[in-house]
Structures are given as structure tokens and as C-alpha cells.
Specification:
single chain; five-stranded antiparallel β-sheet; 3 helices; 255 residues
Length: 255
């Protein structure tokens, strides 16, 4: 079977629930609308679902053209309003210093009330990715998920790994061989730059945020001694060489 795009996942607010798309615009900065916002604490440090898994229960939707951000909470409450920015923030983001803007409106209060912590919503000039300098998009082969399922003897939901694109029709961890190569992804071309190292977020149920599967122990059992750009590698991150439209079912082809 030829390789095809299996899924497209985004989250307009980093750390909140993923949304599954049928198609997207892949720009040089990443998937349009993905991680346009993130959360900081009172010290302007990044807060995500690694420390607050329940954040994955909040479902975000962002209409960039209308400037409308909607958050749906598990109790049925919805907070929706047009985005307005108010002041600059210098946020600490995985060792980086990131310029961001405070978002004025009801979202920070609603998220703080749900999480039980004082959190603020901020917006970045580009996607708030863990690899802001070189990782515009992420890819994971579904064959790699099957390898992990065999080791765990349990189903593994690909949403745990929060990757933009899943790829059907490739061998286990075949995406590792794409590092440094140009890969056609629908109408776009990407160049994988490195491995995605894994953290405790992958142990969390993507619907509830509660830890329920020891993915890290399983990855350590067969991936920790590999030569890779990050520890416990699973999937790759990529720069975008040629922007374009990407749809579920589109061909994926190393060039």
C-alpha cells in the first residue's frame, strides 16, 4: 500500500484537546491555526497538560479569519468571544524566551477556574511548538503505533503523541529514515529535522488527561539506546520546504 495521510491533528491552544481535521493549510510556520495560543502561570512560564492533564478535556476551536476563539468545557459550558490583545509578555518556554501578547477576555478566568490554578492565555506571533526554531510540523507512522501496541499488548491511541500528521502504509519507524530528506505531504513538501523525544503527556488518556498507559517504560524498553536527536524518540519533526494544502488520504512520498 502506498503511504497516505492517516490523520491531521491540531490544537489552537497548546495543551488543550486535539481537533481532527479533514484538511489543512501547511505554511512555513506550521499548520495554520495550530498552537496559536498557549498558557502561562503567574511567573510567565509555560503551562501545558504534562503537569495539568485535565486541560485536555477543554476543546478549543479558533476561527482565525473571524478572530473568534471558542473553548468548550466538559460540563457543557462554552466560552466564545473575539480575540483582543492587551500588552506584551516575555514567556519562558522550554528554556527559550518567547515574545507573546496577553489575550484579553473570558478565557483565562474560565481555564483557571477549571484547572484550579491562576493561568493566563497568551498569543504568539507563530505556532507555540516545542521546537520553535526548526519544527513546524510533526509526523508519525501508524506502523510505529502498531509496534508499541505489540510491546504494551494494548491499543494505543495516536492522539497521545499529539502529532500533526499520521502516515499509513509505512513500515515500523520508517519515518526515522526520512531525516534530512524531502518528503511530499499532499501538496506540501517537508524536511524532517529530528526525532521527537517523549514525555509524560503520552501516558495520559487523550480524553480525560489521566495517566493510564506506561508508554515511557515501553519506549525505553526498545528505543532508549537508539542514536537520536532526542531521548525516547517516537515520530519526527519537520521544517516546511514548500507550503501547500494537505488532506486526509493524500499521498506521502520521500523525494
Amino acid at each position: 500500500m502506498s503511504a497516505r495521510v492517516a490523520w491531521i491533528s491540531v490544537s489552537p491552544v497548546k495543551g488543550l484537546a486535539l481537533r481532527q481535521l479533514d484538511e489543512c493549510e501547511l505554511t512555513e510556520a506550521g499548520v495554520a491555526g495550530d498552537r496559536a495560543f498557549f498558557l502561562v502561570d503567574e511567573d510567565d512560564r509555560l503551562v501545558n497538560s504534562k503537569g495539568l492533564g485535565a486541560l485536555q478535556q477543554i476543546v478549543p476551536r479558533y476561527d482565525e479569519a473571524a478572530g473568534l476563539l471558542t473553548l468548550a468545557f466538559p460540563d457543557g459550558t462554552t466560552v466564545a468571544e473575539e480575540i483582543h490583545l492587551d500588552g506584551d509578555v516575555t514567556a519562558r518556554f522550554y528554556g527559550l524566551t518567547v515574545a507573546a501578547r496577553r489575550v484579553e477576555g473570558p478565557w483565562s478566568e474560565a481555564i483557571s477556574g477549571f484547572a484550579g490554578r491562576n493561568l493566563r492565555l497568551v498569543q504568539t506571533p507563530g505556532p507555540a511548538t516545542d521546537r520553535m526554531r526548526s519544527g513546524a510540523a510533526t509526523l508519525l507512522g501508524t506502523g510505529s503505533l502498531r509496534a508499541l501496541e505489540r510491546l504494551l499488548d494494548a491499543p494505543v491511541d495516536g492522539r497521545r503523541f499529539r502529532m500533526n500528521f499520521g502516515v499509513d502504509g509505512v513500515d515500523e519507524h520508517e519515518e526515522d529514515d526520512w531525516l534530512g530528506r524531502r518528503v511530499r505531504l499532499g501538496d506540501a513538501v517537508v524536511v524532517p529535522q529530528g526525532n521527537v523525544g517523549r514525555c509524560a503527556v503520552t501516558t495520559q488518556n487523550p480524553d480525560t488527561g489521566a495517566p493510564d498507559l506506561d508508554t515511557l517504560k515501553a519506549l525505553a524498553a526498545y528505543r532508549q539506546d537508539l542514536e537520536s536527536t532526542e531521548p525516547l524518540p517516537f515520530g519526527v519533526y519537520a521544517a516546511v520546504a514548500a507550503p501547500g494544502r494537505v488532506r486526509v488520504g493524500d499521498p506521502v512520498e520521500p523525494l
